[in-house]
Amino acid sequence: MHRDYIDISSSDELVKLSKSLSERNVKVIAMDFEGEFNLHVYGEKLCLIQVYDGLKYYLVDPFLIADDVLKNFLTLKNMLYMFFAADSDRSLVYKQYGVKMNAVYDLQHLVEVLDLPGRGLDSVLLSELGVTVENKKKFQRQNWMRRPIEEGAKQYAVNDVAYLFKLHESLLQKIKDEGKIEQLIFKLAGTFKDFDKKSVPGIFKTPAFRKMSRAKKDKYTKIVELREACAKELNVPANTVLTKQDLVDVTENSENIRRVRFHQKVSRGMMEGLIEDILKL
Question: Which of 55, 64, 87, 187 is least surrounded by CB atoms within 10 angstroms?
């Protein structure tokens, strides 16, 4: 289904949208983010904001918006932001912009109260509304950094917020029918997002890392730091410099760095420097 939307591609346009929402007394908007998470370039970046106010759809391009205007939009007074599975989205804008999105209503909490068998948005939309998400595989690894964003990707992004109001109605009614309102209240009241809590990267949670001795873990950490520095300089995903398996192999034996088949994006000079640094560990 094709949906009409309004592109928000300047700070002035976003200010006008904020003003319009206030003047129309809109208290809840459905929202979702598309981002870059070390798939195509280095680091994590907010790439697109999808908004649905119950009447119109908006696609906000954060690349064209001043930081202060964007921060204000994400923390509007008397506004509730309805998401599905908001944790990573909230962490993303906190890391990038320092924004603590506290006025978030996460529908995933309702799913948890109901203990539905499928917890992901696709599964819940299918079971509750009979909606099948289209083109999931095609856009799952979309490069949202690229401009212009193709129309198919925009339609896919808009659909992420298109059903959130209806889904909320369905889930809330089911909670009422099952007599779980009090359970939901406790769930929401007990939900607290600790923005300042340091998250542990996945590469430090692997079975291989957990089995390492303290000395090997220290060495592994230093190799990871060297990899990150190279990836940041090249603006490529860290895995492009050294894969997860490379990290383990080189930690086990530094000489294994000589056997690594480096990606073509890693220059000869950088490769030689990295090899030299690792052999010194």
Answer: 55
Phi, psi for 61 (deg, rounded to 5) = -95, 100
The closest of 87, 90, 86, 93 to 67, measured between CA atoms, is 93
Please say whether the beta carbons of 142 and 39 come within 8 A. Answer: no
For domain 202-279, say whether CATH 1.10.150 is its number: yes
**For the chain, domain boundaries:** 6-189, 202-279
What pTM does this model have?
0.91
CATH superfamily name and code, 6-189: Ribonuclease H-like superfamily/Ribonuclease H (3.30.420.10)
User: What confidence tens digit (pLDDT) does each residue in 132-189 have?
Assistant: 988 777 888 899 999 999 999 999 999 999 999 999 999 999 999 999 999 999 999 9
Give the integer Cα–Cα distance in Å for 46 and 48: 6
Structure tokens given for 268 = 């000869």
Q: Which residues have C-beta within 8 Å of that of residue 228, sequence separation ≥ 6?
A: 238
Q: Is the pLDDT of residue 19 over 80?
A: yes
Would 6-189 and 202-279 be classified into the same CATH topology? no
25 torsion bin: left (phi>0), alpha (psi -120 to 50), beta (else)? left
pLDDT of the residue at 158: 96
**pLDDT at residue number 248:** 97
Query: Does pLDDT of 190 surpass 90?
Result: no
Per-residue burial over 16-45, b if 16 or more Cβ lie within 10 Å, else e, is ebbeebeeeebebbbbbbbbbeeebbbebb
Sequence-ordered list of residues with C-beta below 8 angstroms from that of 108, at least 6 positions apart, any chain: 84, 85, 86, 119
CA distances from 219 to 24, 205, 206, 211, 231 (A): 58, 16, 15, 14, 18
